[in-house]
Amino acid sequence: MAVIRILWSEGLSKLHRQMQAYLNELLYYQVRCLPLPESWVPPVDIFEIPQALVVVVTCPGAERERFDIRLDGHFLYVKGYRSYPLRGRVYQLEGEYGPFERLIRLPFPVTSKGAEAVFEEGLLKIFLPKQGH
What we know:
HSP20-like_chaperone, four-stranded antiparallel beta sheet, single chain, 7 strands
């Protein structure tokens, strides 16, 4: 009969390191993703093209000069403002207005060198070149 030696301490230590890394990333993402209480969260689509990752933020009526876009490691932070289109008595308001922000976890590493943002027809398109391209 063969004796199998199991080194529980090594396995548990590796599992502990993996769980700690996962929890650190999760907490970093969750805490940084919490929007300000008075802000709204715009929908985001992410596409991969041959040379870049493209992040599309849907924010019709947003003010072009009030965008704040930052790349921080594996996260893209987008902040902006959408004003009310009219002033007066409101009878129905289904749209989101005021400050908005979104923290987006990127699926793979990108670089800010050569990054470009275009705002047209209510869509903010952010082109982030892939690392090594």
